[in-house]
Write a structure and sequence with these properties.
With 418 residues, the chain is of the alpha/beta class. The chain folds into 3 domains: 302 residues, Metallo-dependent phosphatases (Purple Acid Phosphatase, chain A, domain 2, 4-Layer Sandwich); 60 residues, no CATH class; 40 residues, no CATH class. Helices cover 25% and strands 22% of the residues. The strands form 5 sheets. Strands 6-5-4-1-15-16 form a 6-stranded mixed sheet. Strands 7-8-9-12-14-13 form a 6-stranded mixed sheet, with helices on one face. A 3-stranded parallel sheet has the order 17-18-19. A hairpin with a 2-residue loop joins strand 15 and strand 16. The longest helix is centred in the middle third of the chain and has 18 residues. Heterodimer of SbcC and SbcD. This is Nuclease SbcCD subunit D.
């Protein structure tokens, strides 16, 4: 059985206001092609389908078309992330065709999605856990029958106000279903989808904070299922995570096929398919999972297509404009110019060479900044002006520049108008 793990599509997002629509179109075509060519049995999208709760209409149309294409090929399972509106994303979910499953209600996490192979044989159970807002879910997940997801939280005390507490409650319900549910004991892959910040993950600049009261990290140990329910059991085959944008493994479980042992199941962030900040330098990818008899036997990273690469160049202007960076001129660029003095017409010159430069800054080593200890109250006005121009420009004025400044000062002082 093959399952493709993706997350954090963030349809509608921009990069420093640059339109990424062609990148999103390229990505969805890649997903459809991968599902078709690799005969994928299920596609997972672990939250943040859209970049904001009210997505742009063109992105809604793009996603709708993509779901129609995918429904002809595979089962699609998606959850809401912290950027999505659960109400909008989940609207009409019960009316969708059988192969499109949208889960936005955490109380349904005990109702696994059955995934069947091409021959119709049941091979995996997917437990979708959408983003858990502690302020909302600490009451809803506090009580109830874990096996059926009944919400009797009105009579239950509140959970701790943290991401760990609400995730622990959700995973406890899943553990109970694994042990007591209708498929208990069967050799099936059991996969949890979750949108959270799991301890050990490396964040980037483009994730937006999901912390509540400063307690945002979820311990990886929760997914071992030890202590998650009254009668804990081990049983997860994989945890398909969303939220962090750099692809990475977390939890310390050994690679599939190795002889290492771990209390934890394999868990991974697939990462976003597109770079949304200049800090995201790792290659983007999705994760193709292969299961045999309920056991994960292979994780394959499928490289994501790159519409326009990103690059950061930090150097003096002469080097930035040199042939050494000629191949970077078609990329989205962040240009940090390090000349001691700010070059004249900096932005114009850089943008002429780098038409897709999104950030252009003059940066100076703080250690090189000169601080004058002179008491400006004892200096005449022209001396103060000269000192200001020298320190702000990181160089002495030329004779011509000094003459212009003196002339302007004299005109102001004497009331002349030129």
């Amino acid at each position: 059985m093959k399952i493709l793990h993706t997350s954090d599509w963030h349809l509608g997002r921009t990069l420093h206001r640059a339109d990424l629509t062609p990148a999103f179109e390229l990505w969805v075509d890649h997903v459809v092609d991968t599902v078709r060519e690799r005969e994928v049995d299920a596609l997972l999208i672990s939250g943040d389908v859209y970049d904001r709760s009210v997505p742009p209409a063109p992105m809604v149309e793009l996603f709708s078309r993509t779901l129609r294409r995918l429904a002809q090929l595979t089962t699609v399972i998606l959850i809401s992330g912290n950027h999505d509106s659960p109400q909008r994303l989940g609207f009409g979910a019960e009316l969708f065709q059988e192969r499109i499953v949208i889960r936005t209600d955490p109380l349904r996490c005990t109702q696994p999605v059955e995934v069947r192979d091409r021959a119709g044989k049941l091979g995996a159970l997917v437990y979708p856990v959408p983003y858990l807002d502690p302020d909302v879910e600490r009451r809803r997940l506090a009580g109830g029958d874990a096996r059926v997801g009944v919400d009797d939280s009105d009579s239950a005390k509140l959970l701790e106000r943290s991401h760990a507490a609400v995730m622990r409650a959700a995973v406890g319900r899943i553990a109970a279903d694994i042990q007591h549910g209708p498929h208990a004991g069967q050799p099936l892959a059991r996969i949890v989808m979750a949108h959270a910040f799991v301890a050990g993950g490396a964040a980037s600049e483009s994730e937006r904070d999901i912390s509540v009261g400063g307690v945002e990290v979820v311990p990886a140990s929760l997914f071992a299922l030890d202590g998650a329910g009254e009668r804990a059991t081990r049983g997860l085959s994989y945890v398909a995570l969303g939220h962090l944008h750099s692809p990475q493994r977390v939890g310390g479980a050994p690679e599939p096929g190795t002889s290492g042992m771990s209390e934890l199941p394999p868990m991974r962030y697939s990462g976003s398919p597109i770079a949304f900040s200049f800090s995201e330098t790792r290659p983007k990818s999705s994760v193709l999972l292969t299961f045999e008899g309920g056991v994960l036997v292979e994780e394959e990273l499928i490289p994501a297509p790159v519409w326009r690469p990103i690059v950061t160049i930090e150097a003096p202007l002469t080097e930035v404009l040199s042939p050494a960076h000629h191949n970077d001129r078609s990329k989205f660029a962040r240009i940090l110019v390090t000349d001691p003095a700010r070059p004249a017409d900096l932005t114009t010159r850089v943008r002429a060479a780098f038409p897709h430069a999104l950030e252009i800054r003059h940066v100076v080593d703080p250690a090189a900044t000169r601080h004058s200890t002179a008491d400006t109250r004892r200096l005449d006005a022209l001396s103060v002006l000269r000192q200001f121009m020298t320190e702000s420009g990181r160089r002495d004025l030329t004779e011509e520049e000094d003459h212009v400044m003196v002339t302007a000062w004299e005109a102001v002082r004497t009331g002349e108008k030129e």
